[in-house]
Design goal:
By secondary structure, the protein is α/β, with parallel strands linked by helices. The protein folds into 4 domains: 216 residues, no CATH class; 204 residues, FAD/NAD(P)-binding domain; 120 residues, FAD/NAD(P)-binding domain; 112 residues, 2-Layer Sandwich (Enolase-like, domain 1). It is built from 27 helices and 21 strands. The strands form 5 sheets. Strands 1, 2, 3, 4, 5, 6 and 16 form a 7-stranded mixed sheet that branches. It has a 5-stranded antiparallel sheet with strand order 17-18-21-20-19. The protein has a 4-stranded parallel sheet with strand order 10-9-8-14, with helices on one face. A hairpin with a 6-residue loop joins strand 20 and strand 21. Helix 4 runs parallel beside helix 6 and helix 14 crosses helix 19. The chain is globular. About 1% of the residues have low confidence.
Length: 720
């Protein structure tokens, strides 16, 4: 901190200290206003400009120093100056004081706060960048936000000073008028009966109602602005309460909830019910992983006292099982089931014509238009295919095409390249290697699973290599070529080109939200990587919502289902009550062997965000059940608030990590700490005991040493 900043901080602190040391707060009370009302009126009559100037300066100082008394001064302004002149003086004094407080906070604190809490401030700056002056105006209208706190917050933000001044002037005006008017009424109180005067009661009622009324009015004005291009097109009645576009996890759950609360809902799907997870992602990949794990266990049966053997299997039978698993789960997401639940399911392509109308093009080419009060877009995401030269010509597999293609093969691809080192790439690379493919995994970054801690990435790399995967880190794909009968991927590593021959190439570099073909452009609904939504999942048009992968920020099936509840409830009942999506506790699992599961912060994220934490670690190699199952590897790592058992995040590496994580998800969701987990009975012998032992490690590190020393002395005395 510079000398100038330190000096300013000392001056501000001295001002606050003098205020409380001299008990100046007694002059800012309702009783003092009443007692000195006549004297003040006399002085004001003798010297109106001088009295006004003194009042103005005092008000500015009180507001600038964030001292208690601004509300009383406002009432005093009404009592002394009247409604009109009092409003003028108070309005400018309060705005100037607030602006000075904001500038002081900005000058003294912003640099240091940004270094420590940059991520938190980024959210505020994002709101300012998105809504500009409306962001501050809305906050000014919320009575639950103290003005001094708002001054401090905006001082730490990137908002321009002039913008802050005029928006504050405008945003506080209604409240100022209400307070000043209340002050004029207080000046008239001369008996107990006067306290219940209609004018005074109306003034105080306005204090509470005006901010809410203005906020509601602002919402109505905004809605009219965004709906202006479609003026006169809103139907008087609607065919449906809700239309849902897309029958993946997000769309299915949204439609299910809508039907459960007796809304008339139509679900539109252009392709397969169940979306990507059922047909191309979660379900088929986990079925493949299970077969691959059994093959691996057969090769290592000697670990369990059995004779190790090379698994004999038909690859076609393995792939048939994958498709059989999908077929067995399909009824859960079928048209028949959802029709029986009360959902109108329509097969076809949906496109928004206007904010209330959806046009459906059926497979036979016929079209139908339906109107709805609200629409939820749950269109999912599609695999990203990089624009590598030659890739399209050489042929590439993605999650959308992989399963159908593998089902046509008599044996696993002899030479398989997996492009990408994220969860999907790692899962497929390990599974196919265990089924007999010579797998080369190419990752541009310097480690796999880049979002996890470095030790997790290292562990995953070692396990994949142990299963025969050739993991190439720091290798950037350049192009694909055909060399005779061989296909070649050319990669760059440390300035050199390397040629990798392959029979099949799987691209697993990520997924992108499906944003085109749904009328978003015509309706001017903003999109970036996903559809832009607010905390309620509303798009620019408040009656159109988005959920699932197309809404972000996570591409998990369970998050899509989680968002679906908010989308359905807000779309159907938002006029009465809306709910912000809760992203506080989001679990994720990478289904390699052993599994990697996480919820909340990991250690790398905590360091990046400057979040103080304690790290507690329990090695699963110590767990009885893990030893009995020959799965004695991995760990549980828990991040907690320093000195407390409050859980900030958990990373589990090991067998059944996904199942073990559920206990921590429950604890974090409901505010339970490690002491609660430690006090819970866990069945012996199970993997779940790892959670209890991790909590025990934390408890051991936080033993009350002084108390135990006295307890030891007590026991010594009892033996004597």
């Amino acid at each position: 901190m510079t000398k100038t900043k330190l000096l300013l901080l000392l001056v501000l602190a001295a001002g606050v200290a003098v205020f409380f040391a001299l008990d100046l707060g007694k002059y800012f009370s309702l009783a003092f206003i009443k007692d000195s009302q006549q004297s003040f009126a006399t002085q004001y009559a003798a010297n109106p400009w001088g009295v006004t100037a003194v009042y103005f300066v005092v008000y500015v100082l009180i507001a600038a120093l964030s001292l208690p008394g601004a509300a009383i001064l406002t009432l005093a302004g009404g009592a002394s100056f009247g409604l009109v002149w009092g409003t003028v003086v108070v309005s400018f004094a309060s705005t100037l004081g607030a602006t000075l407080a904001m500038l002081a906070a900005r000058y003294v604190l912003r640099d240091s706060i940004e270094k420590r809490f940059g991520a938190k401030l980024a959210e505020v700056n994002k709101g300012i960048a998105k809504e500009g002056a409306f962001y501050l105006f809305t906050l000014r209208l919320l009575p639950i936000i103290p003005f001094f706190a708002l001054n401090l917050l905006m001082g730490l933000s990137q908002m321009r000073t002039w913008t802050y001044f005029w928006v504050s002037q405008l945003g506080m005006f209604a409240g100022t008028v209400a307070y000043v008017n209340a002050g004029t009424e207080i000046a008239k109180i001369d008996s107990l009966k006067s306290i219940l005067s209609p004018g005074l009661l109306a003034s105080f009622a306005a204090l509470g109602l005006l901010p809410l009324a203005f906020k509601k009015g602002l919402d109505i004005w905004r809605a009219r602005q965004v709906y202006a291009p479609w003026k006169g097109q809103k139907p008087k009645t609607f065919d449906r309460n809700l239309i849902v576009i897309g029958a993946g996890a997000g769309g299915l759950v949204t439609a299910y909830i809508a039907a459960a609360v007796k809304a008339k809902v139509t679900l539109i799907e252009a392709h397969k019910m169940g979306g990507d997870c059922l047909n191309y992602g979660c379900v088929p990949s986990k079925a493949l992983i299970r077969s691959a794990k059994l093959a691996h266990q057969m090769r290592h049966a000697d670990t369990y006292g059995l004779s190790a053997t090379a698994p004999q299997f038909s690859f076609k039978a393995v792939m048939q099982r994958v498709h059989d698993v999908v077929a067995a789960i399909e009824p859960h997401d079928s048209i028949e089931r959802y029709t029986n639940l009360g959902v109108d399911v329509v097969q076809g392509y949906a496109k928004l014509v206007n904010p209330w109308t959806v046009e459906i093009t059926r497979p036979d080419g016929s079209t139908q238009r339906l109107t709805a009060r609200a629409t939820v877009l749950a269109t999912g995401a599609a695999p990203i295919v990089p624009s590598l030269p030659g890739l399209a010509d050489i042929g590439v597999l993605t999650s959308d095409t992989l399963w159908a293609h593998l089902a046509t093969l008599d044996a696993p691809p002899p030479r398989l390249v997996v492009l990408g080192g994220g969860p999907i790439g790692c899962e497929l690379a390990q599974a196919m290697a265990r089924l007999g493919s010579a797998v080369t995994q190419v990752e541009m970054a310097d480690r796999l699973l880049i979002r996890e801690d470095a030790e997790v990435s290292q562990f995953a790399t070692e396990r994949l290599r142990a299963d025969g995967v050739k993991v190439l880190l720091g290798h950037q794909a350049l192009r694909c070529e055909q060399a005779g009968l061989s296909k070649v991927l050319v990669v760059s590593h440390q300035g050199k080109e390397i040629r990798i021959e392959f029979d099949e190439l799987i691209c697993a570099v990520g997924r992108a939200a499906r944003l085109t073909g749904y009328g978003l452009e015509a309706l001017a609904i903003p999109t970036q990587r996903t559809i832009t939504t607010n905390e309620y999942l509303q798009t620019l048009l408040p009656n159109i919502y988005a959920a699932g992968d197309v809404a972000g920020p996570y591409q998990f099936t369970h998050v899509a289902a989680h968002q679906a509840w908010y989308a359905a409830v807000n779309a159907l009942f938002g006029q009465l009550k809306s709910f912000k999506v809760d992203y506080r506790v989001i679990p994720a699992v990478t289904f390699i062997d052993p599994e990697v599961a996480r919820v909340g912060l990991n250690e790398a994220e905590a360091k990046a965000q400057n979040i103080a934490c304690e790290v507690t670690r329990y090695g699963i190699d110590d767990l009885d059940r893990a030893i009995a199952d020959s799965e004695a590897h991995g760990w549980v790592k828990v991040l907690t608030v320093p000195g407390k058992d409050q859980i900030l995040g958990v990373t589990i590496v090991g067998s059944h990590a996904g199942e073990l994580l559920a206990e921590y998800v429950l604890a974090m969701k409901h505010g339970l700490g490690l002491n609660k987990i430690l006090g819970t009975i866990h069945t012996y012998p199970t993997f779940s005991e790892a959670n209890k032992y991790a909590a025990g490690e934390w408890k051991r590190a936080h033993q009350p040493k002084q108390l135990l020393a006295w307890v030891a002395k007590y026991h010594d005395w009892m033996r004597s």
